[in-house]
Amino acid sequence: MSDRMSAGKDDPRLLSALALLTFATGLIDAASVLGLRHVFTANMTGNVVFLGFALVHAGAATAADCLLALAAFLAGATLGGRLASKGVAFTAALVVEVAILAAASALSWAPSAVPRLALIEIALLALAMGFHNASVRKLAVPDMTTTVLTLTLTGLAADSSLAGGQNPRLPRRLLGVGLMLLGALTGALLLRAGLEWTITAATAVAAGACAVAATAAAVPRS
Fold first, then answer.
1. Which helix (H) or strand (E) holds 103?
2. Distances (CA, A) of 139 to 7, 145, 207
3. Residue 150 burial (CB count, 10 A)
4. Domain 12-214, CATH class in plain words
5. Where are the extended beta strands (E) located within the chain?
6. Separation CA 155–CA 209 (nearest Å)
7. In angstroms, rounded to a whole number, what is the distance separating the alpha carbons of residues 172 and 110?
8. What DSSP character marks residue 220?
9. Are 22 and 180 in contact (CB under 8 A)?
10. Rounded CA gap, 154 and 133, in Å?
11. pTM reported for the whole predicted model
12. 119-148: b or e for each residue (b if 16 or more CB lie within 10 Å)?
């Protein structure tokens, strides 16, 4: 990476940036699932399941919406992975993510006379989150994936003292779960004021993560 960082993957500033991104993920999925067309834009496991439901005309999401979110996410992940392979800094990747989220936010504030372009918003959010996931994945910070909690929850149980484990990184794992929950809760509450508030809040939080990451020490690409 080109960032001037040296403290490694446990740099508290880097961990703080990833924590903010975890909170933003909760906001973004609240916006897409509750405020748009009942699809995830960060959690692709959910979209694959929703797609299966939609193919037999069950559930609220349509197959077309699920496929759009999946395609945009994969496009973002491909772009993010490509830039990471070329050594683009994590902070620079976050700048791109924030720019895409800002575009989605701006679209959400369109005057009420202009029909909401929900499909474009879904595509932008999923594109940003695909890019996000590829960038965070390259960092490979243990238990700070920012979007996926299944393995985190598995680790909490499988590595617990009840299972004969030593509870490694217990505070970090609990923090990840708590922040995702808080982001989803906050997003749902903000939706009462309007979708634009939820997307804008997610954009602001991601921008904050970018600012914090810019002060962090460099982590070698894996």
1. helix 90-108
2. 13, 9, 18
3. 10
4. mainly alpha
5. none
6. 25
7. 39
8. -
9. yes
10. 20
11. 0.89
12. eebbbbbbbbbbbbbbbbbbbebebbbbbb
Instruction: Dig out the tokens for 3 from the structure.
Output: 């960032």
- Give whole-number Cα distances, 66 to 49, 113, 117, 141, 183, in Å: 9, 27, 16, 29, 22
Q: What are the domain boundaries of the chain?
A: 12-214
What are the two backbone dihedrals, phi and then psi, of residue 93, each rounded to the nearest 5 degrees?
Answer: -65, -40
Token match 């939706």: residue? 191
The total number of residues shown for the chain amounts to: 222
Q: Tens digit of pLDDT for each residue in 91-136? A: 999 999 999 999 999 999 887 645 568 899 999 999 999 999 999 9
Please write the tens of the pLDDT for every residue from 10-66: 788 999 999 999 999 999 999 999 999 899 999 999 999 999 999 999 988 899 999
DSSP state of 203: H
Candidates 153, 170, 150, 172; CA nearest to 161 is 170
DSSP string for 13-66 = HHHHHHHHHHHHHHHHHHIIIIISSS--SS-HHHHHHHHHHHHTT-SSS-HHHH
CA distances to 5, 181, 205 from 32, in Å: 34, 15, 17
Per-residue b or e along 77-102, where b marks 16 or more CB atoms closer than 10 Å to that residue's CB: bebbbebbeeebbbbbbbebbbebbb
